[in-house]
Amino acid sequence: MAASQSFKFSNIKISTSLRFISISSNGHSFTVSYLINKCGFSTELASWASSYVHFETPEKPDSLFVFLENHGFSRTQILNLIKKRPRLLVCDTEKTLLPKIEYLHSLGFSRPELAKILSSYPTLLMHSLKNQIIPNFNLLRNLFHSDDKAIKAIKRFTPILVYDLESYLYPNMNVLRGIGVPESNILVLLNRQPRSLLYNPVRLKEIVEEAERMGFDPSTKMFLSVVIALKSMTKSTLEKKFDVYRRWGWSDQEIHEALRRHPLCMTVSEDKVMAIMDFLVKKMGYSSTLIAKQPSILRKSFRKNIIPRALFARELLSQGLVNDLKLSVLFDTSEKVFIRMFVDRFVNKAPELLKLYKEKLKISEKKQTLEVS
């Protein structure tokens, strides 16, 4: 008797579960099918998206495709946009999207630019034109006293149009003003690196104070380059990078001087620093402290720039064609200038030099391919 009741109870639970699954499946089956077949979603992604967007006929989502195509979006851009923001499939294109696109176009954004920007950051279309987009653009225009500069900042970091500028931009600008950064330099930073000023103001204050402790002058443009470099890492990460340089014999003063010469040298990964230093110091015989005076080298491509040029330079030295090669001349010149200075210059004395340099490049590229694979 107990077994019979248990069996009936189990049947009831199974039946209820199946009925729930059936209802759920039928309720979202069209949405899921549309997302898979029309939008290229995976089954899992379509199932997830159907929790946020639901439609039983294709009219509204189809209208989004037509609308975007009419405004210059490619199919790939449309699909990227939908995958990032599926809810756009059920929005009213004429009331919700058209005013924003028309406004942005009126500012000077071309149709192709808008298609690129909005497919990369469709969240912009989900925000209020009146309460966020227009006020933020007006604020940027007033700061720059220029529509063009405001537009360039937006192209570099589109989310600035919907950020809470009162909570981030203004406090961060005040932090920089408070330590003596000229207004002109702040605006250059806003134009070229707008993301840097949409940062936690408390953390930015710590960073600029660290830059001051290192001896950088807030009135110089170099100061902001240092701030950008320091902002890209935590305090512990920065200290680890300092330790890497110390391992190669750099004093703290040399580290700070290297940072002053080329702030972005601190953004280079520890592994890359070790590889470059090991190659130049141990294999090529350059002084570690000499590299500290030319830290821009650390930002060069190890495989495409440093290895082939260094090996080629060793050949020039061994053949007596040159007596000395400065690091700056060897690594900081463009490929065209390097060929002219070190290959074409000696082509009559050693016709095989160009072939030799190309071989060094091929060897380096082959090693890189093997490492990647």
TrEMBL record:
UniProt keyword annotation of Transit peptide present: yes
Pfam family, one: mTERF
GO cellular component annotations of the record: chloroplast
GO molecular function: nucleic acid binding
Gene3D superfamilies: Transcription termination factor 3, mitochondrial
GO biological process: chloroplast organization; DNA-templated transcription termination
Ranges in coiled-coil conformation: none
UniProt keyword list: Transcription, Transcription regulation, Transcription termination, Transit peptide
Family indicated by similarity: Belongs to the mTERF family.
Protein name: Transcription termination factor MTERF6, chloroplastic/mitochondrial-like
Lineage: Eukaryota, Viridiplantae, Streptophyta, Embryophyta, Tracheophyta
